[in-house]
Amino acid sequence: MENNDIKPKKEKVPRHKMPEQDPKVRIHNFNEVPTGYTDEMAIAEAKRCIQCKKPGCVAGCPVDVDIPGFIALIAEGKFIEAALKLKETNGLPAVCGRVCPQEDQCEKFCILGKKGEPVAVGRLERFAADTERNSGKVTIPPRAKANGKRVAVVGAGPSGLTIAGDLVKLGYDVTIFEALHKAGGVLVYGIPEFRLPKAIVEAEVDYLTKLGVKIETNAVIGRLKTVDELFAEGFDAVYLAVGAGAPVFMNIPGENLSGIYSANEYLTRSNLMKAYRFPEYDTPIVRGKKVAVIGGGNVAMDSVRTALRLGAETATIVYRRTEVEMPARIEEVHHAKEEGVQFQLLTNPVEYLGNKEGWVTGLRCQRMELGEPDQSGRRRPVPVVGSEFVIPADTVVVSVGTMANPIVPATTPGLETNKWGYIVAKDGTGQTSRKGVYAGGDIVTGSATVILAMGAGRQAAKAIHEFLSQA
Amino acid sequence: MNRIIEKKDLSENVVQMVLDAPEIALKRRAGQFVILKTDEKGERIPLTIVDSDSAAGTITIIFQVVGKSTAAMAKMKAGQSFTDLQGPLGNPTEIENYGRVVCIGGGVGVGVVYPLAAALKKAGNHVTSIIGARTKSLLILEEEMKQVSDKLVVATDDGSYGFHGFVSAVLQQMIDAGEKIDRVFAIGPVPMMRVLCNVTRPHGIKTIVSLNAIMVDATGMCGACRVSVDGKTKFTCVDGPEFDGHAVDFDLLASRLRMYLDQEKQSMEAYRCQCHGK
Fold first, then answer.
1. Is the C or the N end of chain B the one with fewer CB within 10 Å?
2. pTM score, two decimals?
3. CB of A133 within 8 Å of any CB in chain B?
């Protein structure tokens, strides 16, 4: 370990930026925006870490990654070892290094952040995971002896993939049932290639199958078979991680005009179906010239940046509060601005206008101002009287949130849900109202983050292991 | 799995396939559909399950060649497999003994109404079926429909076979003749379903239609298939595909079905060039 007396000197080294594609270039392709640290940059950044005795960063991580531990290994040039250290607690480091909101988690608690900038934990995580994957030296960790017990995981998103990896390592026979034709959940249908290359997700899924996880795609639980039928087939426990997959619309006039998409549809067409490579791929997508995206979250940023890459002349975020209240990560908003996205803030659509062919031509909007705080603690936007105006648009993407998909709860008797249709599950274990049935991720919490869904998977893995060890 | 067991041309551009799909065959009920994908680059194609054989572990689908994806499907041969087959999807038809029902199918829609007629017949209904096509050579499933109907009327637009005119005219005649009709099931092109609903509406005859909205995931995730029923937005994939025809906004359905006409042409042209190149 380094000597304490050189610490103050190290703090002065500024946080290392990650090289990125030039905005002018990248809006014409779907390649990843940041290109990653070089070995030298990673080592230099890792050396900024002062190896706190009581690391705040770890406390800020939903899956308790040994952050100082893996960073110390990078500092020593032991990149593969760093990746293995990450994988002890995080099954998807290449994903988390890219899409975790580090500024609200590990990096928020970094001591260096008090006076300067925190250690770039996410960038280092990504670096270690990428280095391991690209080395071709990905090793399969040892598995406990098969214990003969079977666990069904419903949904191959971050939560389902995490629990499957944990349980298979403990010796369980694990099958994931995925409704779509590809495993990955939101990582494949939702997050665009330019933010999370699909080859990375495929590598992670491939790693799990090498560990022994079975994945059945095209299997819609609730339709093809029910949760009760899974038990009848011999599964000893079921984990429900079906996500919050149903789109929310605003129910304003004209919302069903042609050219108006939910963000789920727009992104699924582009990401999962690869419509951005139409007609090489068969699924089409509207390449709008004037695109408006309603909402201020990460999904809205993904949509508006996709629109630019599909050739939009203007791509505009329409959001009813101000930039301060935007739920999107600062980095995403920053990237969107760099790329030329326009922002209509304190603006809310009240009606969509269309032409004779039933195609959208614009949004009638009203200006908003911020009033008293609402339940979320954010100041409630209220309309300004007489402020209506029209934003012209030939394509609109509605990105105002998602809700629970009812297929599984509706076909599982005795499974308790709350008034929004989310599954009721115990904090810390994921136990539902049905014995042997656990749930986690967005279907319990409503739309949240990849890492929280993974954390729920990890906790449920422990709970299921405990439950089945007693049985 | 997903293998084509048998393939048959029903008319010049309508193809029937029997697919190996044991789990779906076991679960499927009348009115439900599947999603098929021909290959890695293919789109997700929704198709009604026309028939199934749980003992043999097979399902039957029927499709019309309308664009690139269906053209590529028509080129597939027995023994080949689809990369993906997902189902059964959508709500099953509400099958009861309604009394006297009329099942109407137009064009490839006959394939969709066939399982309904079969299930309704089995449930004890008196089934009159009216099936139509533009011309005799395009008529499909006449023999099969005859077997599940108490009475079958065939209509062709050009009069080349059976009744000369639209299926709606046959229904109108039945109503005018005072025949008792407890429920109508009407499946076919949008203009046909719209007209049939206009025929039954004044007489208060409940009319169920099955909608062919554009879909992507077909599990309620994307909302591509949204339609307006009784002024409310519904997703065809999870709320349907069958709805009360008198409440459906057919204009909206028709306009949303036109959303990708340009891309469909572009895709077909690219496909033709590729085929000719080989």
1. C
2. 0.94
3. no
Which residues, at least 6 apart from A78, have a Cβ–Cβ distance to it below 8 Å?
A: none
As a whole number of angstroms, the longest Cα–Cα distance in chain A is 75
Across the interface, whether the CB atoms of A264 and B223 are under 8 A apart is answered yes
**Radius of gyration over every alpha carbon of chain A, rounded to an integer in angstroms:** 23
Residues 6+ apart with CB under 8 A from B254: B190, B191
Nearest to B135 by CA among B160, B154, B107: B160
Q: What is the pLDDT of residues A172-185, one digit of tens each?
A: 999 999 999 999 99
Contacts of B104 (CB under 8 A, 6+ apart): B113, B129, B130, B131, B132, B167, B171, B184, B185, B186, B187, B188, B196
Per residue in A347-366, pLDDT (tens digit) is: 999 999 999 999 999 999 99
Min Cα–Cα distance to chain B from A355, Å: 11
Cα–Cα nearest to A408, from A224, A193, A139, A176: A224
pLDDT digits (tens, 9 = 90+) for B226-272: 999 999 999 999 999 999 999 999 999 999 999 999 999 999 888 88
Cβ pair B270:A224 closer than 8 A:
no
| Closest CA–CA distance from residue A227 to any residue of chain B (Å) | 14
A87 Cα distance to chain centroid: 18
pLDDT at A3: 47
CB pairs under 8 A between A and B: 120
- Per-residue pLDDT tens over the stretch B122-170: 999 999 999 999 999 999 999 999 999 999 999 999 999 999 999 999 9
The predicted structure's pLDDT at residue A471? 62
Instruction: Spell out which residues of chain A touch residue B259, defining contact as CB-CB under 8 Å.
Output: 258-259, 286
A380 touches chain B (CB under 8 A): no
According to the model, what pLDDT value does residue B276 have? Answer: 65
Give bridge partners of residue B163 from the DSSP assignment: B155
Quick one: pLDDT at residue A2?
A: 45
Q: CA–CA separation, A393 vs A334, rounded Å?
A: 23
Question: What's the token pair of residue B76?
Answer: 């597939």
- Give the residue ranges of DSSP H helices in A289-438: 298-309, 330-338, 407-410
Residue A283 touches partner B, C-beta closer than 8 Å: yes
Q: What does the alpha-carbon distance between residue A332 and residue B103 come to, in Å, rounded to a whole number?
A: 54
DSSP A260-310: EEEHHHHHIIIIIS-GGGTTTSS------SEEEEE--SHHHHHHHHHHHHT
Contact list in A for residue B224 (CB cut-off 8 A) is 261, 265
* Rounded distance between C-alpha atoms, residue B117 and residue B131, angstroms: 11
Cβ partners under 8 Å of residue B66, min gap 6: none
What residues contact residue B222 under an 8 Å CB cut-off, 6+ apart?
A: A247, A262, A264, A265, A268, B215, B216
Give the mean pLDDT of A67-84: 96
Contacts of B68 in chain A (CB under 8 A): 279, 282
Tell me how many degrees the CA angle A194-A196-A198 measures, rounded to the nearest 5.
100
What is the SS3 string spanning B206-247? CEEEECCCCCCCCCCCCCCCEEEECCEEEEHHHHCCEEEHHH
Which CB contacts under 8 angstroms, 24+ apart, belong to A377-382? Answer: A378/A321, A378/A325, A379/A321, A379/A325, A381/A320, A381/A321, A381/A346, A381/A348
Q: What is the pLDDT of residues B57-113, one digit of tens each?
A: 999 999 999 999 999 999 999 999 999 999 999 999 999 999 999 999 999 999 999
Q: pLDDT digit string (tens) for A289-306?
A: 999 999 999 999 999 999
